[in-house]
């Protein structure tokens, strides 16, 4: 084997090894995702937890919860830049004053932010809030999720330390606000990515070997 062939073979082996490592990394990601999904599925299968001021985030997070209270539409906010099937829109975030009458978690009153869902907005920012009002006094059920970080427009110290992603009651006849779907507990793309990387490794080795064998002076 000539020196140039040795160099080509070495490069092919290194590239294949890198592809194999990336494939193994994707398999590790798959294991992590499956473990995470198992925990989430177990929490979501628990009976709905009734939200009160003294319910901690660790108790409520990623679990179905029920909240009784009254929406404060005067303090409603929008989280812009949300799209649905390619249509620009916003998420309606409405404070819900709980009916437990207690003092608030973290000193802010017994109030939880409720993500009521998506509504269309041509500029993905402004919306007619009055057009999407629902009942004032409600019993809502949904999933308690961590509040998004880095939102300067939300002072979470005023609210319980999670956001309730509302599932029921269902919206009115127009179907708006459109409720967000529950988290998808699938394997994601990790297995297909791993197979792709392993395929790249095989193609690299086989292709290089075939190329070297065709050379008459190899």
Short description:
This protein has 218 residues and is of the alpha+beta class. It is 33% helix and 25% strand. It contains three helices and seven strands, in the order αβαββββββα.
Description:
This protein is α+β, with helices and mostly antiparallel strands and 218 residues long. It folds into 2 domains: 3-40 and 190-214; 48-168, Beta Barrel (OB fold (Dihydrolipoamide Acetyltransferase, E2P)). It has 3 helices and 7 strands, in the order αβαββββββα. The chain has helices at 3-44, 57-60, 190-214, and strands at residues 49-50, 64-71, 77-84, 87-98, 111-120, 137-145, 163-168. The chain has a 5-stranded mixed barrel with strand order 2-4-5-7-6. The longest helix has 42 residues, at 3-44. The model is unreliable at 104-108 (pLDDT under 50).
| N-end to C-end Cα span | 5 Å
Radius of gyration: 26 Å
Number of helices: 3
Q: Return the string of H and E elements.
A: HEHEEEEEEH
User: What's the CATH architecture name of the largest domain?
Assistant: Beta Barrel
């Amino acid at each position: 084997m000539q020196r140039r062939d040795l160099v080509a073979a070495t490069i092919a082996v290194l590239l294949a090894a890198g592809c194999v490592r990336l494939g193994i990394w994707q398999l590790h990601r798959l294991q992590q995702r499956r473990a995470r999904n198992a925990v989430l599925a177990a929490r979501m299968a628990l009976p709905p937890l009734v939200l009160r001021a003294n319910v901690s985030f660790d108790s409520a997070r990623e679990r179905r919860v029920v909240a009784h209270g009254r929406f404060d539409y005067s303090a409603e906010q929008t989280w812009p830049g949300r799209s649905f099937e390619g249509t620009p829109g916003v998420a309606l975030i409405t404070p819900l004053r709980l009916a437990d009458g207690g003092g608030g978690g973290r000193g802010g009153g017994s109030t939880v932010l409720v993500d009521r869902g998506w509504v269309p907005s041509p500029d993905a920012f402004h919306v007619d809030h009055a057009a999407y009002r629902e009942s004032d006094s409600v019993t809502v059920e949904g999933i308690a999720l961590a509040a998004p970080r880095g939102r300067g427009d939300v002072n979470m110290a005023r609210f319980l330390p999670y956001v309730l992603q509302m599932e029921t009651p269902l919206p009115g006849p127009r179907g708006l606000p459109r409720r967000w779907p529950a988290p998808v507990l699938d394997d994601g793309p990790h297995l297909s990515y791993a197979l792709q990387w392993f395929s790249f490794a095989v193609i690299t080795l086989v292709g290089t070997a075939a190329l070297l064998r065709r050379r008459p002076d190899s």
